[in-house]
Specification:
By secondary structure, this protein is mainly beta. The chain folds into two domains: 2-98, OB fold (Dihydrolipoamide Acetyltransferase, E2P) (Beta Barrel); 100-232, no CATH class. The chain has five helices and 13 strands. It starts with a strand and ends in a 17-residue tail after the last strand.
């Protein structure tokens, strides 16, 4: 199935043991399918948030969540996608406003796997990572391939990004899995500057885990209300 896909965010990559390769997961909006996740996404330089793509996708057979799709050709290193145009995040509101939920419990109740939750009080911060693997030590005993791929994953990070926020249920403290935040930490250190673009957010995009579907992670904060609309063409993402 060919779709248009407005890429909103990508998560920090994970190692796929079955395929012996590194993949990331993306979240985006399609006028054909709505708000969906597309996995796997190979580690490529020209598949970035803030752009609209044409993708060939199919429903993931190993994932029962109704919002989960697979990028055709990704496992064969021939992913079928084409970059179309950039977009501004302020354009998203008209497309995803109906995806809002009051709380994570509401998402669980309706067995959803991606949600958009309004933010009032929130804070992003770095915390110690329970997944940290010392890759320098690993290099003494294991294949060098392990040391190479872990630099992109959580396994080599001493810190993990987290977000504290309130919804209709109360307080939550979730992992914040946006890849760009971790790349900043890898290149420049785990300091508050990594969160400089998360200020004044109105919503947080969240997604659950396949194996533990009542466990949620934050995927991206978004500012969806501060739009200046002058002409209809300025709020069109899909043409």
């Amino acid at each position: 199935m060919e779709i248009e896909y407005c890429l909103i965010t990508k998560t920090i990559p994970e190692w796929n043991n079955k395929r012996k390769s590194l993949y990331t997961c993306s979240i985006g909006y399609s006028p054909q399918l709505g708000l969906i996740r597309v996995y796997p996404i190979p580690i490529v330089k020209d598949f970035n948030s803030g752009f609209v793509y044409k993708l060939d996708v199919e429903k993931r057979k190993t994932d029962s969540r109704f919002r989960s799709y697979e990028l055709i050709g990704a496992y064969e290193n021939k992913p079928r996608y084409m970059k179309i145009r950039p977009y501004n995040y302020s354009m998203l509101w008209r497309y995803i406003k109906d995806e809002q939920s009051k709380s994570i419990s509401e998402l669980n109740k309706r067995k959803d796997s991606i949600g958009l939750i309004p933010l009032k009080d929130y804070r992003l911060y770095w915390d110690n990572s329970s997944r940290y693997v010392n890759t320098d030590q690993l290099g003494l005993f294991e294949d060098a391939e392990i040391k190479d791929f872990t630099k992109y994953t959580k396994d080599s990070r001493t810190k993990e990004a987290r977000i504290l926020f309130k919804d209709a249920d109360g307080k939550h403290d979730l992992q914040y899995n946006e890849w760009g935040i971790y790349e900043f930490g890898r290149k420049f250190g785990n300091n508050p500057d990594a969160f400089r673009y998360t200020k004044n957010a109105t919503h947080v995009l969240v997604g659950n885990m396949l194996q533990f579907q009542s466990t949620w992670m934050a995927l991206k904060t978004l500012n969806l209300h501060n739009q200046v609309v002058k002409t209809p063409s300025q709020i069109e993402i899909f043409q």
